[in-house]
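tokens incoming
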């Protein structure tokens, strides 16, 4: 009988450890586990162009259910709307709530474990607007260019994607379709050239899967649920520098562009700053990916 009691006690103790460990796994919660319909990332101060919010909860390991709340006040006292979504993290929530242009929406989510709620996530917010502006957080990063007359533009990633602190341009000694930034057929420098440049660089020099270089870092990047990043062309790099270079996320040193100068050199610029250069492709500089978007 005593042995049986010992076995039961040990079993209960192990069960308690497993349960507590599961509960603590998400506490404090990582806000990157939650995202909304438009941005697909919970960026504080982000922007939505939709007045009828629909939210989606990403799955949290081990959770049996979820609570979710939205409000026009950060304190969640007045105007709070709360929902529950049990066993289905993919359920769209909040599609019967309409807000107004100019409203700032605050929201939180928390998982439950066998009906015991964990802590609420950090407060996540976005502002409903009828237009985008330079510097807005939207669709994966910071808006730094809006094309006149059409609903499209360019977005910079929220942080550098450099390997360690920096990375080479790659392909030193390889002349990729031309000898200088003003006279070659593919590696152009203008505001829509980063994507084709990146593809051309990778096709020309990507013969070693373990070789890390600027264009490959951008091409392989998955950030805030987006995977269509590329290395900016020279004019795109300068536009990014001039538009958002002082937003506090740049290191104050040289960043690579995807614009080649010749077989041994490529274009770069200091962000924030005014210095530009053509430097050796083996130099290890900082890398900031960008992506194109429509809205």
């Amino acid at each position: 009988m005593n042995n049986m009691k010992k076995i039961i006690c040990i079993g209960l103790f192990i069960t308690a450890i497993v349960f507590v460990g599961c509960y603590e796994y998400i506490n404090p919660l990582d806000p990157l586990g939650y995202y909304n319909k438009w941005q697909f990332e919970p960026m504080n101060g982000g922007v939505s162009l939709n007045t009828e919010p629909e939210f989606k909860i990403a799955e949290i390991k081990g959770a049996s259910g979820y609570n979710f709340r939205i409000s026009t006040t950060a304190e969640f006292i007045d105007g709070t709307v709360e929902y529950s979504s049990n066993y289905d993290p993919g359920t769209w929530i909040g599609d019967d709530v309409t807000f107004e242009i100019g409203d700032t929406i605050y929201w939180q989510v928390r998982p439950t474990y066998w009906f015991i709620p964990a802590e609420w996530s950090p407060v996540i917010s976005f502002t409903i607007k009828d237009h985008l502006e330079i510097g807005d957080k939207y669709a994966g990063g910071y808006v730094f260019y809006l094309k006149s007359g059409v609903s499209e533009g360019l977005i910079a990633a929220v942080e550098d994607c450099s390997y360690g602190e920096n990375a080479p341009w790659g392909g030193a000694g390889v002349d990729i379709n031309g000898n200088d930034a003003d006279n070659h057929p593919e590696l152009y420098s203008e505001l829509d050239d980063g994507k084709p440049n990146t593809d051309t660089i990778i096709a020309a020099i990507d013969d070693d899967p373990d070789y890390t270089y600027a264009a490959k870092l951008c091409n392989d990047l998955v950030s805030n649920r987006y995977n269509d990043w590329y290395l900016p062309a020279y004019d795109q790099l300068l536009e990014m520098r001039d538009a958002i270079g002082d937003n506090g996320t740049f290191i104050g040193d040289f960043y690579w562009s995807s614009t080649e100068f010749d077989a041994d050199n490529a274009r770069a610029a200091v962000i924030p700053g005014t210095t530009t250069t053509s430097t050796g492709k083996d130099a290890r500089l900082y890398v900031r990916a960008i992506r194109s978007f429509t809205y």
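note: The first helix runs from residue 2 to 25.
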